Amino acid sequence: xxxxxxxxxxxxxxxxxxxxxxxxxxxxxxxxxxxxxxxxxxxxxxxxxxxxxxxxxxxxxxxxxxxxxxxxxxxxxxxxxxxxxxxxxxxxxxxxxxxxxxxxxxxxxxxxxxxxxxxxxxxxxxxxxxxxxxxxxxxxxxxxxxxxxxxxxxxxxxxxxxxxxxxxxxxxxxxxxxxxxxxxxxxxxxxxxxxxxxxxxxxxxxxxxxxxxxxxxxxxxxxxxxxxxxxxxxxxxxxxxxxxxxxxxxxxxxxxxxxxxxxxxxxxxxxxxxxxxxxxxxxxxxxxxxxxxxxxxxxxxxxxxxxxxxxxxxxxxxxxxxxxxxxxxxxxxxxxxxxxxxxxxxxxxxxxxxxxxxxxxxxxxxxxxxxxxxxxxxxxxxxxxxxxxxxxxxxxx
Length: 397
Fold this sequence. Notes:
Elements: H1 3-25, E1 59-67, E2 71-79, E3 88-99, H2 106-113, E4 114-115, E5 119-123, H3 127-139, E6 153-157, H4 172-180, E7 199-200, E8 203-204, E9 207-213, E10 222-230, H5 242-245, H6 252-258, E11 272-280, H7 286-302, E12 311-319, E13 326-327, H8 344-363, E14 368-370, E15 373-375, H9 380-389
Parallel strand pairs: 5-6, 11-12
Antiparallel strand pairs: 1-2, 2-5, 3-4, 3-12, 3-13, 7-8, 9-10, 10-11, 14-15
Helix pairs in contact: 3-4, 7-8
């Protein structure tokens, strides 16, 4: 490592440490996940960590960038397995709920039905810098010397309120660090990584994750989800009208005007974006993975989104199963995958995990100030009250 690069790396680590310190000392109340509030969507149980990493082999790496008063952004990397993804490819598919966004590499994923790099999430104007950095990182991997084409996959949401997005602050070192430090186990959520500067339903959004483990009688497969939430709408939590009760929701100003009142300062129309990553160890080909990805919109809708005109709603789904893995230079592929009739439970698990991952992104996020703005974390004390009024209570300790 050169002296210059070493200095940049130390600065990067320092920024990450500052970010952790900032979150730990923030004035927000203690943040908890959805299940700690009694919110447990659906019928299937979560995996060990209730995270995308419950799918064996999947790893997540994150770098949080908070610098001065203006930089509030980061990178989140999702690696499908521990090997070289280019040489051992996983089937994948992308579904576009509303295409107001930039999703680098998505057309080739859907054309060929496979991933050949990890997945990166970052801020809108940083996608091309992140893509270039990951291409460099991939080409430097062992056995990549002869590679002359590479389809890097990078998704984004716009954090230009809290973050000086025009500065394009994500660096190649940040991308490399996220990729190199990706691990399994628990995943940090909230105002971290690519979710550092995001906003959801008028409150601080961020990174959220969840998983579902199907019963053995339904295959025993695991479905894991990770989201970067930065969208709007009328928030509901397990059906409880939290957005209305908190007096913060899309079209609020216009509704108030129609009712002849002045109440309601928000005039947003639910715009924003969300990236949803779905991983599973169920042996699925790209056709059925596209079906899984499309069901994620149902989980998104349950939280109160209507996929507004200004929202980029993208879902990418992939399978890690050995029986559907694709060696890059194989002249023929022999795969074994689930039949269509076995897909319904996987669909159900995906919808449930998406819904819960979005709640986790909200409930774990902390108040963030940056770029001349402050976005508050959703007040969990009030959320508890609203949920209780609608018969939703935290589990007994």
